[in-house]
Predict the 3D structure of the following.
Amino acid sequence: MILNYEFLKISKEDDIAVVTITKEKSLNALNTKLITELGDLFKEIEEDKDISVVILTGAGKAFVAGADISEMVDLKPQEAYEFAKRGNEVFLSIENSSKVVIAAVNGFALGGGCELSLACDIRIASSKAKFGQPEVGLGITPGFGGTQRLPRLIGTGLAKELIYTADVIGAQKALEYGIVNHVAEPEDLMDKAMEIAEKIAKNSINAVVNSKRAINLGMQTDITTGVNIEQSNFELCFTNEDREIGMRAFLNKEKPSYKKN
């Protein structure tokens, strides 16, 4: 049972959920309330066996235009630490979710908004989207994982340039850098996100989840440990009926019909 949220709206189509951030007046800026709501909603989604894929987007001109500066401006050092800690806890829960999370970046994804998109598995951008980590222009560092996820995604050189210069880049440049997988016209953004979500959802979700776990864990370690992680997740697939369904269908030249969770 999905609860009602002040700044979030959720809809479901089969096993695909669409989560929209609706804090439009402040360009969906992340404050404590919105961060808490995101954490609570994704906790509910994690427990919902009828959801396999989540599309996360924003209402209006922004995906998330950043953290709420009006809330941060008077924070004491320990309060700032706690604010960053809470945001990181929520973003890690999204990154490590058993659901596949697709960011449909409809507009500004700056600071915390860029970091939120980086916590998702796949990013699709509207041609009008803007990305950046402009925190150093405010006298602070990124606080929700930008210094960690961005270098892992695009390499340290480009990540350092983006963070050190506080540059804001467009969707096409983000595609060239490898921040996003696809760029779509604004009117086609959600259709493209849904197309990818449907492709994922038709496969064995058990195998997808094991693949996600192997990738996420393997990226934090050396190649030898990484292939051992893969072997373990490969083994796990043989404990699930999806492996039998998929392989028998292949041998019989049929399309597999996987049971949903």
Q: What stands out?
A: The chain has two domains: 8-201, 205-251. The first strand starts at residue 8 and ends at 13.
